[in-house]
């Protein structure tokens, strides 16, 4: 395996959790809800994914548990913001703080234990192809799932009736309600989908990316995923591009640290966060791009009148 | 059965006052359930969490030590949140305030005079304010989401502090430990009442800030401007208020207070810079701000409650062997209940049997 291909694969591993979490949040925001709890749902997915995989010995059960816990955890947010109409920003923050607290408590006995790993796939001949074989045909199954997820969400949102309904709820909930669409139900489903994705992304971190549990191991990735949605102006394929850009920055700075290029390692470690700020500035400065694509009802509360 | 919200004609003064207490009560119930699940006697656990730390004088001092940064930061955040500016990077502003305030005692240890401490406090406030001005500038100039930028800068600040104490500012006589030299006596924020415990002047600063910001919010035009722009930016513009200036005002005030909290913590409670100087005060302060209903005087009470949860976490770990991580879970839970209980201020909650909905619909609801 060549050096370049090895780097490409590590970039894909760094990008996959960002991609999955951001695609989930994209669906949530397209339905008009801003859930800032991605970090909290992700870290809950990481701790349960790791724990269940460790106890059962099966990474697949770990992923399943991570998805379920992410979705259940997001229900807390959904109940407060959709049924009790609380402020979405504050409630999302609460979800993150609660997730970081609860995961630290649950994961205490997992610290320092080696995790259960998930193998990569192998297809005879194809995986052995020179240059691109391992990148295209020899990665872990969740990598392929993340690409499939991006494609299906893109198709669902822009090519199906249900996707159109979801976007209409996000753009104008009053009109959607007047047309007889159950706004609250659709938003509940969207929030749970986002939670399931964030949970899976967290499970990926603790089972594939670094197979271990460390407190706060998401390290801001949930927030970067939120930034990616803005960066992508709410378009699935642009999320993919953004996630790989960030994967490249993350891996690039790790390689630079390993080479010891004379720059403090802390400065290099802060690059992904600084890059997020820079990217947000570049995108948000372009008002036309953001104004056109932002779901018009994003973050606005909705109480059905009767 | 369904839950239905009915808008109240005006906000309920009763529930406005009651909601923090409802939230606290629900948190205690949830906590009791959580401790039972962990196999502990819930009454014992709650006793060690919330009563035991209040029984000794030295422990009350510790409460003030922990409450000081929480109250200072949360008061600044209340100005931000009321004006609809979502600064969630107070943790970073706290750190940068601590670093800026430490320049004199760390780099010029021979400059020893009574002016050092006031200068440190001013530089700490300036450092926090400058760091908070970054998301404000990006928001006003480039329309960038301040939630994401202020949060990203927290990670940058943590890494910056880590670099400073391991690199340029490491104590030359410190046997390679990642920490700066100990502050000299003129750089230490004194205790309020040294013979009985550790509480330092940071707590007094917090009380002064609470009264000052309360006065600003409730008695001055600037305070009115904060609330108008927060509730309706359009109305604010018609009144001639500038929302860009308000963004800067809110961020700079809250950054300065977070910076003051940072330098007070370092010079009052720690005495040097270390890689980690805060157990998440900047984030817990968000909970304090909401529990105090964004009212500076309410925030003082809320800060004491959350400080108690930190102390209780330590006490419960020692006495009944519950992990101190439980405290963080408690704090998160509390914010959920606070936000949920606040719904009662604006809405009446009705439980509707599912059957009656169809009846209602057949009356020609459309």
Could you characterize the architecture of this molecule?
Chain A: InterPro entries: ABC_transp_permease. Chain A has helices at 3-30, 38-56, 59-83, 88-106, 133-137, 141-159, 161-171, 173-178, 183-209, 221-231, 236-259, 265-269, 271-285, 287-293. Chain A contains 14 helices and no strands. Chain A is mostly helical and 306 residues long. Chain B is mainly alpha-helical and 366 residues long. Chain B has a single domain, classed as Orthogonal Bundle (ABC transporter involved in vitamin B12 uptake, BtuC). Helices cover 70% and strands 3% of the residues of chain B. A two-stranded antiparallel ribbon of chain B has the order 1-2. In chain B, α3 (57-82) crosses α9 (221-231) and α3 runs antiparallel to α11 (243-270). The interface between A and B is large, with 47 and 48 residues.
Secondary structure blueprint with pairings:
The complex is a heterodimer of chains A (306) and B (366).
Chain A: H1 3-30, H2 38-56, H3 59-83, H4 88-106, H5 133-137, H6 141-159, H7 161-171, H8 173-178, H9 183-209, H10 221-231, H11 236-259, H12 265-269, H13 271-285, H14 287-293
Chain B: E1 2-7, H1 13-37, H2 42-50, H3 57-82, H4 90-101, H5 103-107, H6 116-142, H7 146-166, H8 202-219, H9 221-231, H10 233-238, H11 243-270, H12 281-291, H13 296-320, H14 325-346, E2 347-352, H15 354-362
